[in-house]
Amino acid sequence: MTAFWLLANCKNSISSHELGRALGITQTSAWFMLQRIREVMKEKKFGRGKIGGGPGSEVEADETFVGGKMKNMHKDRRVRINQQGEQFRGKAVVQGMLDRELRRVRAAVVPNIKRQTLQNEILGNVKYGTTVYTDDAVWIRTSALAVCP
What we know:
alpha+beta, 5 helices, 18% strand
């Protein structure tokens, strides 16, 4: 993130030597990092818009739970999380979508794993006519996801 900030805030860009000195890394590592950042900054939509699109395009969607194990937490935090009474205590729900053709991934933290929440996230990020593949999770299994409107 520091490299991204330095590149974005320099009106005449930044050299790999200067970035290497600022971050305390080698010039070759800094050059590689700059190439990747510049490639991301070239995109016109910069992560916005919908993925997929058109007949024959395919998107995979799945969700996961991110967070530490209860047994590894400090006792105070464990007590506080146990009082919440959630199904997956102390975990954040992250839903990801992969455009198989473009090899682009879109991920977002969602508030819960209810079918309506996950389906709305898919409908908001996938173009009409795209075939969506999901797992057999009960909360998202529906015929409406075969082709997103």
